[in-house]
Every structure is written in structure tokens, then in C-alpha cells.
Amino acid sequence: MRQSSLFLPTLRDVPGGADVISHQLMLRAGMIRQSTAGVYSFLPFGWKALQKVERIVREEMDLAGAQEMLMPSIQPAELWQKSGRWEAYGPELMRLKDRHQRDFALGPTHEEVVASLVSDDIRSYKELPKTVYQIQTKFRDERRPRFGILRGREFLMKDAYSLDKDEAGLDESYQQMYDAYHRIFSRLNLNFRAVTADSGAMGGKDTHEFMVLSDIGEDTIAYSDSSDYAANIEIAAVLDTYDAAAEPAETPEEVETPDQKTIAEVADFLEVAAADCFKSLLFMADGEPVLVVVRGDHEANEIKVKHHLGAEEVVLASEKETLKVLGTEPGFIGPVNTPAEVNVLLDPAVKVVSSGVCGANKSGMHLKNVHAGRDLSHGEYADVRNIQEGDPSPDGTGTICFKEGIEVGHVFKLGTKYSEALKAEYLDDHGRARPVVMGSYGIGVSRALAAVIEEHHDDSGIIWPLEAAPYDVHVIAINAKQEEQLALAESIYDSLRQSGMEVLLDDRTERAGVKFKDADLIGIPVRIQTGKRAAENIVEVKCRLDGEVEEVHTDDLPEVITRMQKKYMQQ
Asked: Which residues belong to any copy of the Aminoacyl-transfer RNA synthetases class-II family profile domain (predicted)?
């Protein structure tokens, strides 16, 4: 491609509202332009980069035995109603009506469609297993689109679905996809971890998120400093290593705490440590009250509460609900003398509090000298808090550290959640109808592209990993008005293209400084510059990765290009 013809509107300055480096560089490098909040056009250079990521994904999916197909973006509401997700998915599901007032959704994922296809076209166990995938635009009505294409409302995604006879088959399909994901993100040269995670609205069991470690990540990864253990903080288990504290001589005593509602306020007012307080939170689990009690320096985890109770929905109780159940407003509730109809979950860490402080279930009042084993009227010990840095690793090796992560992929074992709802059945070898066992596997293709840029850049611009680079080589005629320089650049351009390389030729009549700045910004791995020694067939070759520059004869270009490309492979 000749740069004089390429639609590549580069920018010198950082656009307003672009808070992260990938968003800034994609705008400056002429890769994307915003249409509306969370919706972007990919310009030719950005689209070419996105296609490189697509190619890697497609190659590894095909290698894993998956078959590519294409499903509609618009999905009838009745499919989602059958699965129960029409309401459960929430406001992120983009809904619309056609001219006949029939309800549809713009698909964020395609479990229902796949299950419907299977119900119509899979008949026998002999037709299983199968894995299908597509690469398609998806839609999610994000409450707060931000970070460019990292969190948008329209995005490119690869979604795959495995169809098996039984759980053993699902385990095998899941492992194949898990391994393929490792290969994909390794080829993109991303620093990633596969972490155990919550399945959320997808349902099913056993799921892993593929997280790129990044300071701008919106998820927190808890990982061991001495093993391969890694999990999303939402589900990272906390080991019960706590011994019960001795009972205090004093009995619980009410103390006035006017307007002191938070743990920090109460601890400061009573001159005690936050770790010596009981934090009590009232949740409604499928409409039933549950009081969750954790130590004052810990945070309750409602996802763990949901899993422990087997509930469909767990939400923090409103002030009105709290008054009705416990007789006082939030900030003064506590676990002593809790009504029998209220389920109480105690985090094991509260056992170490010898003489603690908790709400007295009276406005403006707290209790002191509280001991969990002695004073809490009823309750069940359960892991209901977030793990913290320094806690023992759940696998028993090392201690927990935190790192932020960008989710670029997610694999789920769905089981029969969707096949049962949509009657996706097959006949086994005894002629009995069985539900197909499903798995679901997603990769945010456009998000992965942004993650690549987020990880691979310097102050001057993008530094593409070799396989994600839109072009292999950037040929620059430093002075395109000088015939010998332009002719040599044209000759190199033609020769490299004939050898199978993808080449960008900067044949513009811009100043040399402008060309060099643009070249650094767009970050093509190898740069060849024709300059004052063009008549001798001598050119400068620069490696974008480390800045190394060599003067070489054009006859030696293939060897030099190969050597520079090997540097990228050794990263």
C-alpha cells in the first residue's frame, strides 16, 4: 500500500477524553474514530490490525477442530425468554421492536441461537461432538462506555460453542478451547493469566477468564506469589485459618454512637481498630433476608453469598427493607439477637475478635464487648468476604498478591442450562432423549487489539508484536522528490511484496521529520529508509522494537529483515 493513497489521518496531539494509552494511540495513529459513545469506526490501518488478530483467532480455532459459521445479530425475544435471560440479563441487553411490535435483541452472545439450531438439526449421538464458532459484531448497552474499544457498546467478538453427549465430552472440548486460547494470546505476545471466575448471567459451572495484566484493568486478579494459582477476586476462596479468640470478661454493653454509621466513623469514635469491629450488611437473597457479618477491615462479597445460598439474585437491602427486618436503619444493624427468620452468615475471620463492636439494631447505638462464639444468637460460618493481599493462597502455596487485569477471553462449561430450556436434545445409543451438553467460549477480538497496544508501546507510539502488525515492513523515501530515492524505495517495495511480505511505502512529499514521527507512531516492526546513498543502493534499516539502525546494501535486506524479525519472536 502506498501511504500517499492510504486513509491514515494521524494526529500529533492527544485527543480530549482519551484516558488510556491504547485509546490515545489508536486515535492518533488513525486507526479508529468515534461515531457516538462506545461506538467506533475502524479506519483502514485499524481494520488491517484487527484482521491480523482475527486471523490468529481463526487459525487456532480451526486447529482445535472448531467449524466457522455466521449467525444473525438480531435474535427473537422468545429464545431469550425461554432461557430466562430476557429479564435476567439486565439493561445491558439491547432490545428493539420491529414494525409488527415483535421484540428482538441485538445479540451480545449466541447461546440461545445455537441451542435452537441444535434442537432443529441434531438428532443422534452419532452427530456429536461438534464445536462451532463465529467472528461477529456484538452489542452491549454499557452504562458507562469508556477506554475506547476496551469497553464499548459495539465490539467484535469470537464466540464458540461446543456440543457434547456428556460431561466427559464437555471436559475434553473445554480443554481444547482452553489450550487454543493460550496459543492465541501467546501469539499476540500478551502477558496474561487464565483465572478461575464467576459465570454470572451465563450460568453453568467451571469457568476461566483470560486476563491481560494491566494497571488499567477493571478486574482484580488474586494470584499466588509461589504457584500458578490465579482467580478473579470475586470468587477467590479464603482459607479458614482462624482460631477462636478467648471470651472477654465483660458482657455486651450498649454505647451511644450518634450519627456514626460507617466502620471508620465508629472505630474512630470509640477509639478501636477496624479489625475489632463486626461489619454487618443485610442482603435480600431471592427476596429473603440474609445478614452477612465480616470483620471491620474486610469487605463482604455478594457473589460468594449468592453461590453459598444457591440464590438467583442477591442485592443489598434497601433502607425500607432494613427497617422492616431489623427495626433500624443501615449503619446500626448487628448480629446480636437477630430475629430467627433472618439467615446469618458469619465470615470465619470474625472468630478472632475477642471484644468487638457491632451495631445494636437501635438507631444511634452500638454494642461493645461482643464475642462471636458467645454472643451471636445464631449463624453459619461461610467464606463470604473478598480475599486480601497477604492472605494464604487457596491452593496452600504462597501468599496472595493483587494485579489488575483486562478480560480478553472467557470460557464456560454451560452444561444443559440452555439445551434443556430450548429442547436441544439428541437420542443416545439406547434411543433415549438426552439434552446436549454445551460449552461457550468468547474472545473480545477488538478488545484484544487494544490490549496489545496497551502493553506494547513507548513514548513515540505503538510497537506491534510481529503477528499483529498491520504491515511487515515500512519503506520510506526520505525525500520523495528526489528521483533516485523514490526509485529505490519503489524497487524495494515491489521486491518485498513479491516475496510475500506486506509492505507500506511512504511515498508522500512530506518533510522527513513528519515521516519519521508517523513511522514511530504507527509502529511497523521493520523500517527501511532510502536517503542520500540511494545511488549506491545503500539504505538504513531500523528495528522499531529496540531502535537499532543499520546501513546495508539492498542485496542484504532479506537477511537483515529476518534477523530483526527474530528479535520480536524472542520477546
From this structure: 38-465
